[in-house]
Amino acid sequence: MTVGPERVRWRLYGLIHRNPDRSLEEMARDVRCSLAEAEQVCDELSGVGLLVPASEAPCGYVTVTPEAALTRLLSAEDRQTTAHLQHVSRIRTAISSLISDYPRLRDERREAVEIEILPAPALVNAFLEDAGSTATVRMRSMHPGGAPPEGIIDDMLLRDKEMESRDIRVEALYSRRTAETPHMAAYLADAERPGREARTAEYLPLRMIIFDDDLAVLPIDPDDSSRGAFAIHGPALVRSLHALYDYIWHAATPSHLAPAGRTADPVLDAQDLAVVRMLADGLKDETIARRLGVSPRTLSRSIAGLLERLGAQTRFQAALRVAELGLLD
């Protein structure tokens, strides 16, 4: 705060102290300043408590001793400090109360999500097996990358048949390039039946399997499946994963890739049906050939021709196809 010159300020304070019966205008002339400057100085002195307005005094003020002014100023500051500390204390109490209640309020907006780490492929496979056996409504899977080995196609068909027997809806997404692999084309053709549907897309972002509405399995590292997977339990996050799956699913192409020769029922003779029955019973080629009275090489050619007519890639697929056609009844 700007104050008047020291000489004017202290001379004016002295005049008011010694001659309170004089007017302020007279005192201004004595200290050689204007009335406005004198009024400004009085305002400054009042601000620090050295003057107190007094209507009965001709100059409008009476003086306060510096000691008394300082005591009053410090007392006022003490009162303000005390009030401020009390205000801070009230704020601290209110915040402490909120802090104690906040976890409960926060939990009201949270849904439980549990993430289980499956650090090895063997653990992932075992977990998927268990999850599939306990699914109650649906299973949705997304498979980027190359085709699975031909040797596990029969296992995939068995899993699909087991889920079909429990009325579990199965949806699967594969890359278009994978679907062009012969053994995958045959598998996808077999997958097209009520309750099971497969679709293909040019690009799939990551491997993902969703069971019902409360469990999803995603890779820890999408580029390295050997690092294992996360199992995400809880509907809150799985709902979002379903939304992602829906987006890709609706943009994908339904898989109608049935091989040639599947549009009409194949014609099988008695020997073909006998071969299929023995394959379904798990007999070895040598045993089947011996029972039919043919050489193992002749049997191999017969089985190859049988698979081609049935549009199957594996013997297990052939047995399923014959069973679907009712040819073993």
TrEMBL record:
Sample GO molecular function, one term: DNA binding
Pfam family, one: GerE
InterPro entries recorded: Sig_transdc_resp-reg_C-effctor, TrmB-like, Tscrpt_reg_LuxR_C, WH-like_DNA-bd_sf
Gene3D superfamilies in alphabetical order: Winged helix-like DNA-binding domain superfamily/Winged helix DNA-binding domain (1.10.10.10)
GO biological process, one term: regulation of DNA-templated transcription
SUPFAM superfamilies: C-terminal effector domain of the bipartite response regulators
Occurrences of domain HTH luxR-type (ranges): 261-326
Protein name per Swiss-Prot or TrEMBL: Helix-turn-helix transcriptional regulator
Naturally occurring in which organism (per UniProt): Streptomyces brevispora
